[in-house]
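ingest -> validate -> predict -> emit
validate: passed (alphabet ok, no gaps, 420 aa)
predict: started
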Amino acid sequence: MAELSAAGSKYIDGEVENAVEGVKRMKALMEQSSKEHRAALRGLQDTKRHKEEAVQRARAAERRLAERRAACNGSAAALWEECKPCLKRTCVRLYSRVCHSGSALLGRQLEELLNRSSPFSVRAEGERLDALQERARWQERRFAELEESFGLLQDGVDDIFEESARVPLHPFPLPAGPWRPAPRRFAVRGRRVARQLQPFLSHPHPGFHRLFQPFLELTQRMFEDAQRVAESEPWRHPLVGFAAEPRNSTDERMVCREIRRNSAGCLKMRDECEKCQEILELDCADADEEQEQLREQLEEALRLAERFARRYDELLGAFQADMLNTTGLLEQLNRQFGWVSRLANLTQRDDGFLQVTTVLSKAPNAEDPSAPPDTQVTVQLFDEEPLVLTVPGAVPWDDPRFMELVAEQALRLYKQRALE
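emit:
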């Protein structure tokens, strides 16, 4: 039994070494991803700064233009006070026709928006400026979620690496033999991951494969949201889908969620309110050349801000896609090799990773009595419960393949249990 145990332990020891090397590759991949992550962050920060500078210039031009208009016609402020409640009622009523909840929240959000806005907001330029602000908040939420999950991913890979570094290698003298497996190429398939995922399990992680699930779940959901956003641009047309009933409950939930996130879209209801229309009709720009200059400055700043906002979306999308790809690769490497981190607290034994306790010949095959009977082997792998395995009768005890088959079966069952 000792010789069989030593042969099986030698095979397992080779597999453990391969897995430790695989975890090192995970660590290297994570470090490379972190470098690319920092470079992407610099690009995002620069673009965000340019966008915010353009928005500030647009805001300044808006304030000066509003002042000139107010000086030109003092009735705009009074009309705005009558326009605001009509906008709120119209939008909330339309929202309530489609959405089953959230009307009160939308009403409060809209009231806050209108109170900090000016009569200028109902004009096309003001609507574009408010939409940029809403878009910036959406981008910030998306970026913050990505950063939080990337931090979790880094921590998880570090945990696996640190635990695998504590795994004892060659804990016993190895006899000469042909059973050590040859070094393997790391098999990683696929670049995109899209699957149903489960909640994160904190360290220590009995289901080590679940380590990457929260990040994959988040980035996959955000990737799908970004595709919908690219198609509908909710900061531009948040009331899309209200005029006609949504086709299904999923469409309905998406429309309602986007409206709650982007209450500035309610300014589009200006055509339904008489007092808002009267504000649009107030214009003495023909008698004020400075107003025309301010309009040109505002338009130029808006175009620039919108261009940088689109660029930020492109960078954020690429940033997210790269993170999703890297996470998919890490998750596949983790499935191949992450099991080794579970051995960090393994009780060290002088007789190796695998012990053979019994070897029995099974009853002859009734259908082919001349065939050699299969062999039943009971083993203990690591600190696990004993396993009863079967080796085909065609492989005798003294064949080097015998213990390779036993150890291979035992390790496969161990990995399956780790994935449960």
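The first strand starts at residue 354 and ends at 361.
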